Amino acid sequence: MLGDGDEQIRSMAVTNVIALHKELVLSSAAEESSSSERRSSSICLFHLPTINVKTGVYYQLADTETCSQQPPAIAHLTNDSIEDCRMRPLLLYHPCHNQTVEQHVKPVTEASTQVAGFEWRDGITRQKIKSRSLMKKFDTKMQFT
Question: What is the pTM of this model?
């Protein structure tokens, strides 16, 4: 919603995210003051909200009012950078067409011709990648002999 072209939708998203951020800061401060020992390595799990498939607009798919976690993609942003989204849409850069992705297209395509179902296709693809990593790799012919 922060990247939407409509300014009203972005403004609604900014308001929700900042309110959620303030709520999270207050709750984490209360937890730190109540706990005597500090946790050095804690894992924060992101729980997906329930999806409303009967809506006609995308921003009502998830109930953002009951969310208790900030989306991981914008967790690193400050309140000032979120406020900037009221004027211009947020653009996140997530590279998806790099060399590693392109190298996995062929094994996934081959697996999809052999089996049906995500679990089976994923298993075959992972097995091919694992077996290729175990094989010796020679850079020159001299290393081969």
Answer: 0.51
